[in-house]
Design brief:
The complex is a heterodimer of chains A (about 290) and B (about 375).
Chain A (H helix, E strand, L loop, with lengths): L1 H31 L6 H18 L4 H24 L7 H23 L14 E4 L2 E4 H23 L1 H11 L1 H6 L4 H23 L9 H15 L5 H21 L4 H16 L14
Antiparallel strand pairs in A: 1-2
Helix pairs in contact in A: 1-5, 1-6, 1-8, 1-9, 1-10, 2-3, 2-4, 2-8, 2-9, 3-8, 5-6, 5-8, 6-8, 9-10, 9-11, 10-11
Chain B lengths: L8 H4 L6 H20 L2 H26 L7 H17 L4 H23 L4 H21 L1 H4 L5 E2 L3 E3 L2 E3 L4 H22 L2 H11 L1 H6 L4 H27 L1 E2 L6 H14 L4 H35 L4 H15 L4 H16 L3 H14 L23
Classes of the chains: A mainly alpha (about 290), B mainly alpha (about 375).
Chain lengths: ~290, ~375
């Protein structure tokens, strides 16, 4: 039983990381209907920025964290301006390919600048555990869970309660109509990319103590976060986190209880099963086709 | 400029629209046939890969380009074809039998993937095919009694009707070329048949196709099966060419490469698959060439423009250091994809058509001819 709870908690923590990356996917998708395959690589880049600020320049953890988030928000806007804006309105396939290309580029550049070694960031959560009875919980994992809950709540409120959030939802439904209604669609899209890059950076920094930062971490985790977003139903913020947690827990349980090899496959088998039964994901809206 | 007068449907779907095609493609085929006697063995080897990649490209075009179903899982089909060949070869099954068996098995598996894909569109389909590819990769690594796990499988030299065909012999090249040509001709015929027309109708609008009486589910599954089967055939050749296969050869990376093949070539015509395959296969030797020779060339240019020999040497070493940076290839790859999507969404073949039209209409060419419409209104989610 204790093993089970232990696996559950570590699965939830891992899942929250997937959820954080998936949140980035969902944000961009919600606002622009663009699927950003480079989301994991934005996370990787955010981690490297934080490493530069904290590990190399010796800044305080929180200042470095904030600096990395700000820098990545700017970078997100830049990436949107250069790669995505010229092809908005074209079929999804083009945009997917463009972001795949962007991901390739970022991965290689990061490998050139920061090398291919695993890097580690010293965080206030790196050491220490919380003991509840005989249950041992590491602070770094708890910090991920807490941060995910906070970010998810904030983003959910932002999307549903603020004017800007409403503008974002409007421009995702119909860009042209939103534009006619006076919504500055270009700026909205730009802001969405900034937010999603910032969320990705949070994921990268929180992740740093758990799985170190290296240039391929974005690809590896992005491939897990993607099913998470799909499982939750692309376009639902709480869905992304629930999907992430599900994927994380499944992975962790499969790694513990099933023979070797199932750990990496189990999330995808579950994903395929869910897609077969509910093609729109768990929380996706079923939209009627218009002819 | 040649004007083709089409008076009925038969004229429109002719395989050879006019005699010029016979001449140009005849010359091309002749050049390809004498290639082994002209080109170096390294280039021949690359040419074989071009044939294999182009075959997969054609398969992917049937599915993605003409039926509109994106797939990021074609490496899995290639792997199934390759492993079927390697496994059956162990039991001395002759080449023609395991070649067909590989295509058949991959086709059946493709159809099985097609069924769940019926309900999925767009991004959900992409993720489903990625999942499939990852699952197949894991099975290949774990099913050790059949696939030999991560140690990989050795593929014996191809033996065709009692004659051994080494993987770098001209005969092997001719075999790959024949498979490619047959695939292309077969696909051209498929596309002008009712089945092909149904594929295109599904791509353009599923609802419209259904209301015209097209059985959407049936044709989607057919498209998946045909595409997978062709990829399976290519997989057999791929296995023989590499003479050793292991699971880490068939990763998501390879699937993405196949998508890049048709993206760079152009997704609207079979020419695109071949052009894209040439581009993808040749970019490697080209980058190596740049890496080795570019520093010297740049230094030479600098010297002719009056730089002293010391500065020229300095430039040469700087450029050489930059060129040997780890991961430069990936960055160039990424930039090429982004540039193609941004500036030439129709691919290399689209660029060729533009150049051709420019000269045909010489003073009257206008860029808007090829301008694609941007759609901000229709939400792809509602399709």
């Amino acid at each position: 039983m204790l093993d089970f709870v232990q696996q559950l908690v570590s699965g939830v923590a891992l899942g929250c990381v997937y959820g954080l990356i998936a949140l980035g996917f969902v944000l961009v998708y919600k606002a622009t209907e663009v699927v950003n395959f480079a989301q994991g690589d934005l996370m990787m880049l955010g981690g490297f920025f934080a490493f530069t600020f904290i590990g190399m320049m010796g800044l305080n953890y929180w200042i470095g964290f904030a600096g990395a988030v700000a820098a990545m928000a700017l970078f997100g806007m830049l990436a949107e301006r250069v790669v995505v804006r010229p092809i908005l309105g074209y079929p999804q396939f083009s945009i997917i390919m463009a972001t795949i290309g962007l991901g390739y580029f970022l991965r290689s550049i990061a490998g050139m600048i920061w090398g291919t070694d695993d890097l580690k960031i010293e965080t206030p959560f790196s050491q220490g555990v919380l003991r509840i009875g005989s249950l041992v919980l590491a602070y770094d994992k708890l910090s991920v869970i807490a941060a995910t809950m906070i970010l998810c709540t904030l983003l959910y409120l932002f999307f549903n309660k603020t004017t800007l959030g409403t503008a974002m939802r409007a421009s995702s439904e119909n860009m042209l109509a939103a534009y006619y209604m006076g919504i500055p669609v270009k700026r909205v899209v730009s802001i969405v990319w900034a937010i999603s890059a910032a969320v990705a950076t949070c994921a990268g920094v929180l992740l740093a103590p758990i799985t170190f930062i290296h240039s391929n971490v974005g690809l590896v985790l992005g491939l897990k976060a993607f099913p998470a977003a799909v499982l939750g139903g692309f376009g639902s913020i709480p869905g992304a986190v629930v999907g992430g947690v599900l994927i994380g827990v499944i992975e962790s349980m499969a790694g513990f209880y099933l023979p070797e090899g199932w750990k990496d496959v189990a999330p995808y088998i579950v994903l395929l099963t869910v897609l077969l039964l509910k093609p729109e994901g768990l929380f996706g809206l079923h939209v009627r086709k218009k002819v | 400029m040649r004007f083709l007068f089409k008076t009925d449907y038969e004229d429109d779907i002719k395989l050879i629209p006019h005699s010029g095609y016979v001449v140009t493609y005849g010359i091309l085929l002749a050049l390809l046939l004498i290639a082994p006697y002209v080109l170096s063995s390294y280039l021949m080897s690359q040419l074989v890969f071009v044939c294999i990649y182009a075959t997969v490209g054609v398969a992917l075009l049937i599915l993605t380009g003409f039926t509109g179903q994106a797939s990021l899982g074609h490496a899995a089909f290639l792997a199934i074809g390759a492993y079927t060949a390697a496994y059956l070869q162990k039991y001395n099954v002759p080449f023609p039998v395991y070649f067909l068996a590989a295509g058949l098995l991959t086709g059946i598996i493709g159809a099985m993937v097609g069924f769940p894909a019926l309900r999925l569109t767009g991004i959900y389909l992409v993720i489903a095919t990625i999942s499939l590819a990852l699952i197949v990769e894991e099975i290949l690594a774990r099913w050790e009694s059949v696939t030999n796990g991560n140690e990989g499988m050795r593929v014996k030299t191809l033996s065709l009707l009692g004659v051994t065909v080494p993987r770098d012999s001209p005969t092997f090249y001719y075999l790959c070329l024949a498979v490619l040509v047959l695939t292309i001709v077969g696909t051209l015929n498929l596309l002008r048949s009712p089945t092909g027309r149904a594929f295109v109708a599904i791509r353009d609008s599923e609802t419209a196709a259904r209301s015209m009486g097209v059985n959407v589910a049936l044709y989607k599954v057919k498209s998946f099966a045909i595409s997978a089967a062709i990829t399976g055939f290519a997989g057999v050749l791929f296995a023989h060419k590499l003479s050793f296969i292991s699971p880490e050869m068939f990763t998501l990376q390879l699937s993405i490469e196949f998508i890049i093949v048709i993206l760079i070539g152009g997704t609207f015509s079979l020419h695109g698959a071949v052009l894209g395959a040439i581009f993808i296969v040749m970019i490697d030797p080209f980058l190596t060439y740049l890496k080795d020779d570019m520093p010297g060339i740049i230094a030479g240019v600098a010297a002719t423009f009056g730089a002293s020999s010391a500065t020229a040497g300095n430039i040469q070493s700087k450029v050489a250091a930059f060129a040997s940076l780890n991961g430069l290839k990936g960055a160039i790859y990424g930039i090429i994809i982004v540039l193609f999507v941004l500036f030439e969404p129709l691919g290399l073949y689209g660029r060729w058509l533009k150049i051709k039209l420019f000269f045909q209409l010489f003073p009257l060419y206008k860029r808007a001819t090829f301008k694609r419409q941007k759609i901000y209104v229709k939400s792809e989610r509602n399709r």
